[in-house]
Amino acid sequence: MKKCKVLTVSTVELSMGGITTVIMNYYKNINKKEVQMDFVVNRKIEACFEEIIKKNHSQLYILIRNKNPLKYIFQLSAIIKENNYEVIHVHGNSATMVVDLLAAMIGGVKIRIAHCHNTECMHRVIHKLLMPVFDLTYTKALACSVEAGKWIFGEGNFDVLPNGISVNDYRFSRKESIEIREELHLEDKLIIGHVGYMNRQKNHLKLLGILKELKELHKNVHLLCVTGSDQIPDKLQQLIKDYHLENEVTVLFRRNDVNRLVQGMDVFVFPSLYEGLGIALLEAQAAGLPCIASDRVPIEVDIIGRIEFCPLEESNLDWAHRILTMELPTDEERERCNNYMLHSEFDINKSCKKIMALYGLEN
C-alpha cells in the first residue's frame, strides 16, 4: 500500500520542550503503515529524538531557518520537490511559518497545515508584517487551543487539535512514587512540582516567590523543577540565594522521563505568563495531581476539574495559601484521573485519528 508522504516542520529546535513533546507524541503513535513522516528541524535536535526518528527509518533534515530566509526557502523547496511530499505540517507560534509554507507552495504541496502552539511570540513586529502573506499560504489552520487559534488566525477560521499525550504512561504508581522520592532524598517532603523551560514565559520568578512563602508556612516543602534548559539562569540562581532556598529546590535538566518524575510530586504549580495550552498540565492531570495554574492559561486544559486557576496579580502568599489548602488525592483518586483522561479527546490515539483525517486518510 502506498504511504502518504508527510513532511513535519519544526520552526524551533527539537529539544526538551512543549512543541517537541507534541510533535514526538504524534510521531511515535501515528500509523506508520499509512504515513511516511519525515522531518525538517531548525538548527538542532536532541539526540534521543534523532535516535527515534532514525530507528523508524524517517528522513531528518536539519536546516538553519532564521539567518537567511531566502536560502532556507530554496533548500526546503528542493527537499520537497525531490521527495514529492503530499502534506506539509508546520509547527510554530507566529506568522514566520510563512517561509516554510511558501517553500511548500513552490514545491507543489497541496495540503499545507499551519499549526499554532502558543498565544504569543518573540517577534511581534515581524509577525504582524508577515500576516497578510501568511494568510495566503496555508490550506488548513490548526491550533492547540481556542486562544492560540484566535492569536494567529482570528475568530473561527481554524480547527482545534487537542495536544495528545500517551495517557497510560502517566498512570500513577505508588511504587515509583516512593522510589523517586527516595532517589531525590525527599521522602518526608511536600513536593511542589513544575515542568517547563526556564524562560520568561514560564514565570519562575513567581514560582520562587511562592516557594519562599511556602517555606515560611510549611517547613517541609520542596520544589522539584524539571526543565529542558541546560542550566539555571543567573537571575534565578541569585533569587534562590536571596530567598535562602538552596535546600528547598531540586532542578532536573533535560529529562525524557517526565512521566515517571511526576509520580513523586504532590501538587503541580504552573504560573505561566501565557500558554497555547500547557501540555505539562495535561501530563500532571494524567498522573492525578492537583494543579494550580495562572489565569493566563487556557481554561480548556482543565480536563478533570482539578486545576485551580489563580490570578497572577494575587500575592505569592495567597498562592501559597491556596496550595496548602488543596486536598491531596488518594492513590485510587489518582488512578481514576488517569482513566478519565484516557476517555478524553487528549488521549494520543484519538489525536492521531484526527491527524490522519487532516492528511486525507480514512480512520
Summarize the structure.
By secondary structure, the protein is α/β, with parallel strands linked by helices.
Layout: helices, strands, pairs:
Layout: E1 4-10, H1 18-29, E2 35-42, H2 47-55, E3 60-63, H3 69-83, E4 87-92, H4 98-106, E5 111-116, H5 124-134, E6 140-143, H6 146-153, E7 159-160, H7 174-183, E8 190-195, H8 204-217, E9 221-227, H9 234-242, E10 249-253, H10 258-261, E11 267-270, H11 279-286, E12 291-294, E13 307-310, H12 316-324, H13 331-342, H14 348-358
Parallel strand pairs: 1-2, 1-4, 2-3, 4-5, 5-6, 6-7, 8-9, 8-11, 9-10, 11-12, 12-13
Helix pairs in contact: 3-4, 8-12
Structure description:
- It is a single chain.
- With 363 residues, the chain is α/β, with parallel strands linked by helices.
- It contains 14 helices and 13 strands.
- Strands 3-2-1-4-5-6-7 form a seven-stranded parallel β-sheet, sandwiched between helices.
- Strand 2, helix 2 (47-55) and strand 3 (60-63) form a beta-alpha-beta unit.
- Helix 3 packs across helix 4 and helix 8 (204-217) crosses helix 12.
- The radius of gyration is 21 Å and the shape is globular.
